[in-house]
Amino acid sequence: MKTIKGPAIFLAQFAGDKAPFNNLESIAHWAAGLGYKGVQIPSWDGRLFDLKRAAESKAYCDEIAGTLSRHALQLTELSTHLQGQLVAVHPAYDIAFDGFAPDSVKGNPRARRAWAIRQLEYAAKASANLGLRAHAHFPARWLGLTLSLAAAPRRTDRDSLRRIGGSLEAYLECIRRRWG
Questions:
Q1: Is residue 132 included in any domain, yes or no?
Q2: What is the three-class DSSP state of 131?
Q3: 104 and 71 in one domain?
Q4: pLDDT by residue for the chain (180 residues), tens digit each?
Q5: Which residue, among 125, 128, 120, 122, has the nearest Cα to 175 in the 3D structure?
Q6: Distances (CA, A) of 151 to 107, 123, 165, 173
Q7: pTM for this structure?
Q8: Which end of the chain has fewer CB atoms surrounding its CB within 10 Å, N or C?
């Protein structure tokens, strides 16, 4: 990126069911009024953005860009923070992370993971349709939780270090298999 698109704001922090936070047009107007030049759109919030439609339709992506442009805003990235965390959830956190998933896959870690992977694939296609070169997410949530669990209780013996290294390698191999 040669230029910064900003100052920018992450719309997920404000999206809600009441105006001006309940649709892209009104939240864009609000953000521009505060002096922002860019927005990061949460791809999971259907009030603001239809991720599947954006993955399948350049025309829809042009509408999104047009909506933002009417308010002198640019799209900085799509966010897949919630979906990215669901790609590889440590089993100890299955119930907690189900809160980020749609009802249709809650309670089913395999289905939840497949849904999350599909969401990231949609986001990659949508980003391309929008002319974006990156999107924001948390792909390493499982890694952090695994390392935290592996490190407790804190030990410095060789077996503990090997266990942590094994977890890291397993995570990296999982990412390599999925994303090449």
A1: yes
A2: coil
A3: yes
A4: 466 667 999 999 999 999 999 999 999 999 999 999 999 999 999 999 999 999 999 999 999 999 999 999 999 999 998 898 898 888 888 888 899 999 999 999 999 999 999 999 999 999 999 999 887 876 655 454 444 444 444 444 444 434 444 555 665 666 666 655
A5: 120
A6: 28, 34, 11, 20
A7: 0.76
A8: C
